[in-house]
Specification:
The complex is a heterodimer. Chain A is α+β, with helices and mostly antiparallel strands. Chain A is built from 25 helices and 40 strands. By secondary structure, chain B is α+β, with helices and mostly antiparallel strands. The chains are: A alpha+beta, B alpha+beta. Chain B: GO terms for molecular function: RNA binding.
């Protein structure tokens, strides 16, 4: 049956036009009820085991109206609600009202467990109604929903007269409800309905919070800094104090106005809060102030060292996400038995987030729990995660705080895996279009215990004296096709996150550690990059191909090293590794000659207790020759691939660049090492590398490493970018001294590599088309952070209940303290030289004075002047402060032991006393902050 | 086209695109916006011999797209230059009624580039099918008038012309039926209407000789993934066959009708 739908529409320009559309009514729209014998559906959605509640003791389906979705989507999303009929009228209204809610509804519809069915009532012959004269569109839609509900209830009665399933209309509109009841339909408001669901009392809380929320927000922190872009030069803008912060939250994109130069802050800054926090609110600076500082070269010395200071004038984009926190005990007033709702204060784990008020009935239950709070206009939902201090809870908190999706893979994603599962094999089907390299002596070299083997290598001498060297990378894109759920999930995860005791995979385990992983003695699909190299490691030519390989051995770095050293071994594989090693050394040397910098970061590895997975010992990661071997060839492959894809897709290649460092930071460092008669030159990466090599103090082997660590920090982060967005000269990778670079070699654990694989495949295979797959890679950076933070967490657990004294080096001197890096554990902490408490207690203690001339702290003691300079070796005592805000926020504490400064240092004999003082101090400081 | 014109078209396109983003061409239950399933045609109505003056004529509706066709000939060529000495010359003219689109009351001349393009596509489609060699040095005129527009111009023009040519009794090898199909988010849609066409859907128009199964026209203006081409083409061909059934039925009805009228009893 055909109906014509015509309506008037206003265009953007304000003209009214008449739109006429066809509207077909059908007989073949089924009810989708499992037991229905009247309809001809193939895959029914609605089950017969529908909901039962106290009010409606028979199984029933729920039909919510549009406003229920708009206002109570949290309730609808609750797992307790299932078997819901979504009317097409509602579905379409929602699309026009709110896209976010519409998208959440779509996710519900796709979730098979929720059993949401969209009933196309507008196209059903019996449920379609026409708008009456003088009827408003809203009234017409309400009537359409009611007519569909009516159809359903009569239809369900037809299926089974005796024991039929009911249909319940949920609407908060009183008029609609009475009309429905007049027509003999059962209708409830959401509140009535949810209160009837006695099994899930927490739903009422969700309901309450989402409907009526009051609260305010305190911004307790005073200092934040912002990375921004002023006239193309990246600078940090300091935002001081609450008024200037203007309710911005970590991660918001804000508009910043620069203050007049006279109000700028001098560096190094005094630490205002208890600890130095690198608050990196990434922000785009909308230039409101004049970019004076770039033009005036003749600034005075004093101003040169001052930091741009500004205030937030507007928030361009909110970056709210769920935050982990705990309830402040003080704010809970009710007794344990009361169930009244009250406002309680949530203190987020991340100090950069202001305190949040939530309204809940379960304050008593939630106390002592880590909870997840999301701010949405104001707080919205809160969930208990587990007891504080428990390691798995803490890990989860860490992941949530970094927005790492750590849940299991959804069934939809797993559906995209090959149907054969573990039994999947390379067969004849895979051979066309692939080079068969199974006869080659390919091996992989990885860290011990590595199961996701991305890369493998081979080499063989050619008759002309050159070598054929191949790098074989797991062919992930064979399994992960664009636009599948798996692809979306991988893109969303962005990378595999390695925590100390856990790995959060980007791809399902079957792929990551089995089908893609280039394990030994099985046929695997690979993407190969094969060069012809001269014995001097010059590239003669390069060839890319998809291939089938069979790795002959998967070695650890140590095993490979042993093969190289063991002269008795003379088999082909060993010879090959030796040749590779020789070539890698030459490549390495060439790279260093070009000016690549050997950088360092204090990475540590934990030895976990076998049973409890608690860390028992820490060691620094060790570098072997074979690490460098693999690394060299991976770099070579990445560079070759980058060149190839760039030649084919000059505008849309995914590349990686590393910008040159900003001179200011390195200049500071250079000044600091002047004391040792060294200096840093950083005009080119070559100069920097050379100057780093020169800076060696023979009796202090760690000095050079420390210097490299600090240099690394002074550099910019390497970033992904799309080649069309920048000039070619900006493509440079400063750290690797490469003109062009990309990530190709780890597709199992980085999504960017997956994209590069697709690009490369399109580049070598002219028929293959490619889409706009170069999208959200910003998330990557965020995910990378989680790895670093995990180490910090385990450090805290390791030191829990221990007092250690160790050697450390001063990496930064501040006005009221200095930062110490302890190489043994790879941790950094701050030692305060002055605090309000200590001076008040002992007024006779000599003051520790900051000397701005040589950037040091000086203290006059009876035995002479003690000064603390950058790079000084000190001995510190490390403890973990347990009792900050009721043990909810653990923190590492460092105290100076040597050189001895009275009033500042602790010594072995007054440990106990000292400990008490630390608690006291920390506790007071915190409490003061809560009170204000 | 003046710069102002171009600018206007661009703004219209941009508004349309911004509107489209909120649209969903295929709903969760596989129904399109107008209630059709992906592989369903719009409703077709057709009637031959609607104009008495023309040698053959037909009126066709496919959903909200409506078209009137008139065929004159074979007759003597008007201009000497157009004479082809061994076969008939086919002349196709298409015009779009000024009232055919509600939003755009601009009068289109017959020399509009888009219409000329469609006309030449129609001409090329029919040239090998009409037995032109039987009518040397003569001319066959096909006039097509779009009365109402809702997408699928080429297909309706071809279908209307087929019906009018049959009505005019011009010998053809076979019916020519045309149908369009497109691809949107992995769904292959048959017989796109205007809203669907505007949503950046690649649209392929196919003209088929339903008996022999040969294609005489494949036309597409946008890019389509090569993997999708075959299924889209196959679906369009199925649509053509369905249209053929309807046209053939109409022709037979009409012949029966004529036969009854001309019989003395």
């Amino acid at each position: 049956m055909l109906q014509s739908k015509s309506f008037l529409k206003r265009t953007k320009k304000g003209n009214a036009i008449k739109v006429v559309q066809e509207h077909y009514l059908r007989d073949d729209i089924w009810c989708s009820v499992e037991c229905c014998t009247l309809c001809l559906q193939t895959e029914p959605v609605l089950s017969t085991s529908a909901l039962l509640t106290k009010q409606i003791p028979r199984p029933h389906y729920i039909v919510p109206d549009t406003n229920v979705f708009m206002n109570q989507i949290d309730v609808v999303e609750h797992p307790a609600l299932h078997d819901v009929i979504v009317m097409q009228t509602v579905y379409e209204e929602l699309r026009h009202l709110s896209l976010p809610i519409y998208n959440r509804l779509r996710a519900l519809i796709n979730d098979q467990k929720k059993r949401f069915y969209v009933f196309s009532n507008e196209h059903h012959r019996d449920t379609y109604i026409q708008r009456l004269k003088d009827e408003s569109p809203n009234d017409r839609n309400d009537r359409a929903i009611r007519s569909a509900v009516k159809w359903y209830s009569t239809h369900l009665k037809k299926i089974n007269k005796e024991n039929h399933i009911e249909v319940v209309l949920l609407t908060d509109d009183v008029g609609n409800r009475t009309k429905a009841q007049e027509e003999g339909l059962s209708a409830f408001s959401v509140r009535e309905y949810v209160e009837g669901m006695t099994d899930t009392p927490e739903l009422v809380d969700v309901l309450e919070n989402s409907s009526n929320v009051e609260g305010d927000k305190k911004v307790p922190y005073e200092e934040g800094s912002i990375f921004s872009n002023v006239d193309g030069v990246e600078t940090q803008v300091m935002i001081l104090g609450r008024p200037c912060l203007n309710r911005a939250i970590q991660g918001d994109v804000v508009a910043v106005q620069l203050l007049p130069k006279s109000e700028w802050l001098r560096t190094p800054t005094a630490v205002v809060v208890e600890e130095e926090e690198e608050a990196n609110v990434t922000a785009d600076l909308k230039e409101d102030g004049e970019p004076k500082e770039q033009n005036d070269d003749l600034e005075s010395e004093a101003l040169e060292s001052s930091q741009p200071t500004g205030k937030v004038v507007g928030i361009i984009k909110r970056n709210w996400r769920p935050y982990c926190g705990f309830i402040s005990k003080k704010s809970v007033k009710s007794s344990a038995t009361s169930t009244f709702a009250e406002n309680v204060l949530v203190i987020p784990m991340d100090r950069r987030i202001p305190y949040i008020y939530i309204r809940t009935r379960q304050a008593q239950n939630l106390m002592g729990q880590r909870i997840l709070v999301s701010i949405d206009s104001w707080p919205k939902n809160s969930t208990a995660l587990g007891a504080a201090g428990d390691k798995s809870t803490e890990t989860e908190v860490l992941l949530l705080e970094h927005d790492v999706p750590f849940q299991e893979f959804a069934a939809q994603v797993l559906n995209d895996l090959p149907v054969e599962g573990e039994a999947w094999k390379v067969t004849e089907v895979h051979l066309p279009g692939r080079a068969d390299l199974r006869h080659l002596n390919i091996c992989s070299i990885d860290p011990p215990g590595c199961t996701d083997i991305d890369d493998a290598l081979h080499v063989r001498p050619l008759p002309n004296g050159n070598y054929e060297v191949g790098v074989h990378i797991a062919d992930v894109t064979h399994f992960v096709k664009p636009f599948t759920s798996m692809d979306e999930e991988a893109a969303n995860r962005g990378t595999t996150v390695y925590l100390v005791n856990k790995r959060i995979d980007m791809l399902p385990e079957l792929l990551g550690t089995n089908l893609c992983s280039l394990r030994s003695n099985v046929d695997r699909l690979a993407f190969s990059c094969i060069w012809e190299l001269t014995p001097e490691a010059e590239i003669v030519n390069v060839n890319f191909t998809k291939s089938v390989i069979s790795s002959k051995a998967s070695l650890t770095y140590e095993e490979a090293q042993m093969l190289i050293d063991d002269t008795r071994k003379q088999d082909d594989l060993t010879k090959g590794i030796r040749i590779l090693n020789q070539l890698a050394k030459k490549l390495h040397k060439k790279r260093l000659d070009r000016g690549a910098i050997t950088l360092a970061s204090p990475e540590v590895r934990f030895q976990l207790d076998f049973d409890s997975q608690d860390p028992v010992d820490v060691e620094m990661k060790e570098l072997r020759e074979t690490n460098a071997l693999v690394e060299e060839f991976m770099l070579l492959a990445n560079i070759s691939v980058a060149e190839k894809i760039f030649s084919k897709f000059p505008a849309s290649s995914l590349l990686r660049r590393h910008p040159s460092p900003t001179p200011t930071k390195l200049k500071e460092l250079s000044n600091a090492i002047n004391r040792f008669n060294f200096s840093l030159e950083f005009e080119t990466s070559k100069a920097l590398a050379d100057s780093l090599d020169r800076a060696v103090i023979p009796d202090n082997p760690y000095f050079n490493k420390l210097l490299r660590i600090l240099t690394t920090r002074g550099m910019m982060q390497a970033v992904y970018f799309c080649s069309g967005t920048l000039q070619f000269q900006d493509f440079r990778h400063y750290g690797l001294a490469a003109e062009i670079y990309t990530h190709f070699t780890s597709p199992i654990r980085r999504y960017s590599d997956v994209i590069v694989h697709r690009l490369l495949h399109a580049a070598i295979n002219s028929e293959k088309n490619y889409g706009q797959e170069l999208v959200d890679i910003n998330k990557m950076q965020k995910l990378c952070d989680a790895s670093r933070n995990s180490v910090e967490l385990h450090t805290n657990i390791f030191f829990k209940g221990k007092i250690e004294q160790d050697e450390g080096y001063v990496t930064r001197v501040l006005k009221n303290g200095f930062i110490v890096l302890v190489p043994k554990y790879g941790i950094e902490g701050i030692v305060y030289s002055s605090s309000a408490n200590s001076t008040a207690k002992s007024p006779t203690t000599p003051q520790v004075v900051y000397n701005p001339h040589n950037n040091s702290l000086e203290s006059v003691t009876p035995s002479g002047t003690v000064s603390i300079n950058l790079f000084d070796k000190v001995i510190v005592q490390i403890t973990v402060d347990e009792d900050l805000v009721g043990g909810m926020r653990q923190k590492m504490k460092m105290e100076l032991v040597s050189p001895f400064i009275p009033g500042l240092s602790v010594s072995d004999n007054n440990l106990r006393k000292k400990e008490a003082r630390i608690d006291d101090e920390g506790g007071n400081g915190k409490r003061m902050r809560i009170d204000d | 086209m003046s710069i102002a014109d171009t600018y206007r078209i661009i703004t219209v396109l941009l508004t349309l695109i911004s509107l489209m983003s909120r649209q969903e061409l295929i709903g969760p239950q596989g129904l399109r916006q107008d209630g059709r399933r992906a592989n369903e045609l719009r409703k077709i109505k057709c009637k031959p011999s609607v104009l008495s003056q023309a040698d053959g004529s037909a009126y066709i509706e496919q959903g909200n797209t409506k078209c009137l066709a008139a065929v004159y000939g074979p007759r003597e060529t008007r201009q000497k230059a157009q004479v082809i000495h061994n076969k008939a010359n086919i002349n196709v003219e298409i015009s779009l009624a000024p009232f055919s689109m509600p939003q755009e009351r601009k009068k289109r001349s017959k020399s509009d580039r888009r219409l000329l393009e469609i006309a030449s596509a129609v001409k090329q489609t029919f040239e090998p099918i009409i037995m032109t060699s039987l009518f040397a040095r003569s001319q066959i005129d096909i006039y097509l008038q779009i009365l109402q527009f809702d997408g699928g111009t080429i297909q309706i023009c071809i279908n209307a012309a087929t019906l009018a040519l049959i009505d005019a009794g011009i010998p053809m090898q076979e019916y020519v039926c045309a149908c369009s199909a497109g691809c949107h988010e992995n769904h292959i849609l048959l017989d796109l209407n205007n809203t669907e066409e505007m949503a950046d859907t690649p649209e392929l128009t196919v003209a088929l000789l339903p008996k022999s199964g040969k294609f005489t026209l494949l036309q597409m203006d946008s890019r389509l993934h090569v993997d999708k081409l075959e299924p889209v083409m196959n679906l369009a061909a199925l649509g053509c066959k369905e249209i053929y059934e309807t046209l053939d039925e109409t022709v037979r009805e009409n012949v029966k009708d004529l036969f009854q009228k001309s019989s003395p009893y």
